[in-house]
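Sharing a chain and its predicted structure for anyone who wants a worked example. Both blocks are below, sequence first, tokens second.
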Amino acid sequence: MTATIRFAEINDLPRVVEIYNQGVVAGNANADDAPVTVDQRVNWFLDHDRNSFPVYILELDQKIIGWGSLSSYRNGRNGLRTTAEISYYIDYEYHCKGYGKLLISYMISETRRLGIQHLFAIMLDINPVSEAILKHFEFEKWGHLPKIVNLHGKICGQLIYGKNLISP
């Protein structure tokens, strides 16, 4: 079985949402407290462009098993144009099999083409798997926002991990 990565198309959005909602249900992968709909995510998808801030699809034997995105940070503020937020979601059936690392590695390799010099990720502080994968790629802890998330009475914080991609 060969995994491939390609740019997302609008017709991929239902599967992207389905995988995202696995994280909503798990309660430790994002700060949404209810599943999102495809309609709610259309504008998010349209805000991404393969030549600036892409959404990527990870396929295994032509089945979408994950996705990742590079998103603009504080869009419109020119001083931040080389900074992007990295997000990644793998279907829970395929967790712990190296697919997340494959996807993140690919997205990092794309940053030069896109002119991105700084990446950061925001995650719940109750998600040690995501924290470990970022540390694998030498992301550093840039911040912690304690106790700001309330998911059905479960209080947690957000961690910010970042990576500078340019030499000092």
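Comments welcome. The domain at 3-164 is CATH 3.40.630.30 (Aminopeptidase).
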